[in-house]
Amino acid sequence: MGKKDQKGEERVEAVLKLLRKQAPLTVKQEKFCNNACVERFLRAKGDSVKKASKHLRACLSWRESIGTEHLIADEFSAELAEGVAYLAGHDEELRPVMIFRIKQDYQKFHSQKLFTRLLVFTLEVAIQTMARTVEQFVLLFDAGFFRSASAFTNLLLAALKIVAEYYPGRLHKAFVIDPPSLFSYLWKGVRPFLELSPATMVVSSLDFEESLEFNDFSTYPRASSLRFDPSSIPSAAKIGSCSSSRFSFTVSHHFDSLKPWYLTLTDTSGSKVGPTSPSPSLLGPALISPLNARSLSFASPAARTPRGSIYGGIASRPAKKSLFASTPLPERTKYGYNDGVSINHPRTPRPSFLQSPALFFRKECHVSRTDKSRESFLPFLKFYRRPYDEMIYRSKMRPPLGGLISIVSPQLKRRHMSVSQRF
């Protein structure tokens, strides 16, 4: 271990020596090029000193062109108010979790350079909150606001390319949540050429609707969730009832509800199908089948006729005979119609391990990619469902990224303390 550490330190010193030969480093660049940063660039380039120094020099030039040292929150006041990109918190291993909820219209009114600056600002805020023992972060891309799969793919590729080239070794996991329907086809074509594709997973929020992993909204009294809660809506007056449907159409007069209408299965006398007699031979409201679930006006004669009148039950034949003689139907038995010939249906054989020798070589721990993505996303589900609060996010910013509020407020507090001490 001592020899490996000594070789690593020698490589780091060699990279820094090459950087200083090309051009002198400023104070901020020296602070950025610490041992941990140089080691990440070395790992990304296979411990090659020349490649790592060249990559690091390109990263320093890019940071200077973007102006990372001059990024402040006042530049993104609209984005911070809407929660377009923000730091949601830290996971169990103290890795920062960032969420990007960018709308499709954002690219129409903002340039690509402004999106890059917003991405870099969010990453820099997250990196400032990292502990010394933490080097990676987690990205959550909420694609629910996108209708175009190509537009979201371009935005995602641009973000992952920046993270791969200028933040090597920083990404732990990246999750794409609720992408457009055609995104899967585009992702399959782009995935092999993307460096961070192994760490990027696609998940759907519908798979976690019944999950109770996160129920901590009480700790955020200022935040409000936009999710629909039918229990919070008072019962409203029903508009009419239809005897041919088992559903009840209800309109809510609550202005905050996301669904002004919904269907219920309320057991009302006006919405019952068929007679309400408890007789087992008649069609009651509890005997729901595919025949009586639809409108009786469009149902077949078998559905409109009470049970037993056609197949020889309690009800008799129709009172009025038709002009043409109808062919009598055979007697209905437990397994079908009995026409004098017993029909033995083939029985499906039970599966046997002798029929498939491949079962001996099947891995018991084999998990599909979808299940693996769901299990990986579970620890970060609470961050995705947690409502956004601008003040909480601004409180995590350190100067100068926090803007004038983070710079002036500590000075005001100190001045207030000095004045109070005088009196």
Helices, strands, pairings?
Blueprint: H1 2-22, H2 27-32, H3 35-44, H4 49-66, H5 77-82, E1 85-90, E2 96-100, H6 106-109, H7 112-128, E3 137-142, H8 149-166, E4 171-177, H9 183-190, E5 200-203, E6 248-251, E7 261-264, H10 301-304, E8 331-333, E9 336-338, H11 369-377, H12 381-385, H13 390-395, H14 404-422
Parallel strand pairs: 2-3, 3-4, 4-5
Antiparallel strand pairs: 1-2, 6-7, 8-9
Helix pairs in contact: 1-3, 1-4, 3-4
Instruction: Please outline the major beta sheet.
Output: 5 strands, mixed
In DSSP terms, counting alpha (H) and pi (I) runs of 4 or more, how many helices? 14
- Count the E strands: 9
The global form is: globular
Q: Rg, please? A: 33 Å
Order the strands across the largest sheet as they lie in space: 1-2-3-4-5
Low-confidence stretches: 221-230, 235-247, 255-263, 268-303, 308-319, 358-362, 407-423
Helix content: 25-40%
Structural class by helix and strand composition: alpha/beta
Strand content: 5-15%
Mean pLDDT across residues: 74
Q: What's the SSE pattern? A: HHHHHEEHHEHEHEEEHEEHHHH
> Termini distance?
61 Å
